[in-house]
Write a structure and sequence with these properties.
This protein is α+β, with helices and mostly antiparallel strands. The chain has helices at residues 20-29, 77-88, 102-112, 161-164, 193-200, 226-233, 255-262; strands at residues 10-16, 38-39, 44-51, 54-61, 91-98, 120-127, 133-143, 152-158, 176-185, 206-208, 211-216, 219-224, 244-252, 267-269, 272-275, 284-289. It contains seven helices and 16 strands. A hairpin with an 8-residue loop joins strand 15 (272-275) and strand 16.
Amino acid sequence: MSRLHPGRGLDHLIHLVRDLDAAVAAYERLGFAVSGENRHPFGTKNRIVQLPGVFLELLAVGDHAPIPEHGGRSFSFAAFHRDRLARMGEGGSAVVLASRDGAADAAAYAAAGIGDFEPFFFERRGRRPDGSEVHVAFELAFAVDAESPDTAFFACEHKHPENFWSAAAQRHPNMATGVPGIVLTAENPSDHHVFLKEFTGVRDFRASSLGLAIPTPNGEIEVLTPGAFTQRTGVAAPGGTGLRLAAIRVAVADLGAAERGAGGRATRRGDLLVVPAGELFGLTLTLEAAAKD
């Protein structure tokens, strides 16, 4: 990979749940607009919270189509999530970066030794907030951190981005404006810096006694020790091995209004409003004031 590679920014995060409708209701109570249900041809289903440049995918395992198993150079998105749900339960299950070329990223991951998988293409019909139908398609390049079996990592190329991203879908009652970053936890964050360097293509990390911070072109990936995560949020770090998606950071235009709208489901902790994993199906959400221009 070229040393001039600008890096891959965040594209979306996956929140794996058992009951998709219940999860949607929880997000709507927090003031998020959530899309209608989409069904994948490989047995999973989702609903989406879209923000500028990044979206949160609420994902569940369905019964509408058979789930393909892993095999050879094939990474099965649906089998991973089915097995992860059975083994670990609900919570943050995947970190997805934006890809300009899924096939090229798959080749780059293979060359770096972090996943020799064929790129995975799929397409489906989608609906805009006004009800109109659109065609969307994606090509995925999977990577694997051998020390992190409970989290999936891949890059996603949008084949028809103009059909997916929608300004109307990004208007939320809680005035959410974006995703400044995410928080992963790991017992020893530095153990994963080589994988994360190759996965993101970002070479410049910040390291401290608390963990790592990786400034991608679209949002920061932070890796904290479990103790540092609890100190910041007041929430226990998720269980599992290696890297775990512990929290998603969302910026809002008016933190006070978001706090009032969240009711008792969120706790103020310094300059953060924290919705703990126990209130949100295994994934912590932090709300923060949007940066002023």
